[in-house]
Amino acid sequence: MKPEPGEFLAMLTPEDIEVVCAAGRPRRWDRGTTVMSEGDTSDWVLVLTEGRVKVSSHTSSGTEVVLAVRGPGALLGEMSAIDGSPRSATVTSLEPIAGIAIRDFTGFLQEHGRIAVLLMQLVTGRLRDADRKRIEYGAFDTTGRVATRLLELAERYGEKTNGGVRVALPLSQDELAGWTGASREAVSKALRTLRDRGLIETGRRRVVVHDMEGLRKRAR
């Protein structure tokens, strides 16, 4: 298991990771499974070790808003486990996933102060990221927001090929629309614009970024 940079396990020492793994039990879910549900109350968290999930919420009209895509090393469900409030989002597996489920997470943090401090740093980083995305929604057009999300996926999950950087896209166009705060039609138009400029190539559940720097400029 190799945790993604910036995720919870990437912040820990090998000794810390052993402590975390020993505190819970391993679990597995198939693709498309609801792992946590918005509105539920629970004291358990999941440390993701394999696969990717989407974190989403629904508006009053039923529209899904994708808040984040998380990969190996991510900590999920910590806010509800800490403050006892209902879960603020739903976590769904985008592919087969595995992780360590830890119950009584507050008790675990009370016993392991160093890990608790690192968790505070993680939560602070997520709040800053949420602020950045709110700025994007107000300042960028749809194509800019789509370019930003594709760039994020390419940097986190991309594999270099002769033609560029290939990303096995875990999201449908509807989900990508929910992640960019736009309609499916607007996202389709944005993808077509990026293709016409030669920045990307799209296929079923995949994207190849031919020009990372060009995509980065469009994202700005």
From TrEMBL:
UniProt keyword list: DNA-binding, Transcription, Transcription regulation
Task: Provide the HTH crp-type domain boundaries.
Answer: 140-213
Which Pfam families does the UniProt record give? cNMP_binding, HTH_Crp_2
User: GO cellular-component terms in the record?
Assistant: cytosol
User: Is DNA-binding among the key words of this record?
Assistant: yes
Q: Name one GO molecular function term.
A: DNA-binding transcription factor activity
Annotated ranges, domain Cyclic nucleotide-binding:
8-93
Q: What is this protein called?
A: Crp/Fnr family transcriptional regulator
Which lineage is the organism of this entry classified under, starting from the top rank? Bacteria, Bacillati, Actinomycetota, Actinomycetes, Streptosporangiales
